[in-house]
Amino acid sequence: DTGVSQDPRHKITKRGQNVTFRCDPISEHNRLYWYRQTLGQGPEFLTYFQNEAQLEKSRLLSDRFSAERPKGSFSTLEIQRTEQGDSAMYLCASSLAVGRGGEKLFFGSGTQLSVL
Amino acid sequence: QQQVKQSPQSLIVQKGGISIINCAYENTAFDYFPWYQQFPGKGPALLIAIRPDVSEKKEGRFTISFNKSAKQFSLHIMDSQPGDSATYFCAASKGTSYDKVIFGPGTSLSVIP
User: A74, A23 in Cβ contact below 8 A?
Assistant: First the structure.
């Protein structure tokens, strides 16, 4: 079990630049989530996929954020024209959703984004 | 809006004591209530979870108590150890339909020797 892998672990960028993060979920998991976490807060839902379909995107998520999961495998999260308020830990989680919901989420260690 | 409220924000407990963290929710459609534990530099990890058809669930030193009428649930850590020092998040989701997990703001627990 290799777990959920996120790359890079840290990213420093200047305001206005675009950044892209990658998440490799546990191989047999069909659901993939992106969360954002700031210091002292709980993970905040951004979006999630069931296989390659993006099922929901948070209303709080600006149009500068886009996520993809081609072929239902790895996922990328892109932030365009970064702002200082985008500085946060971006967490990816995967799960195997079968039958009744309420599945166990497996989180990666996150990508820490700092926008200067 | 904060769909899951959590208290206290931080907690200091002596080794061997009982740590208690409380959560409350508003949405009666929630029917799956997990607790996650997070260590610095790591993502959260599932600790224990409960569905509202039971009032209590125990796994080792960790117990969830659930009060459906009050829309509250709590985590009790018995015989707290320094290794339990971490941030704990309660969460909720509509488990019967594939829905996102909503997290509370977290409780930072420090267990002192």
Answer: yes
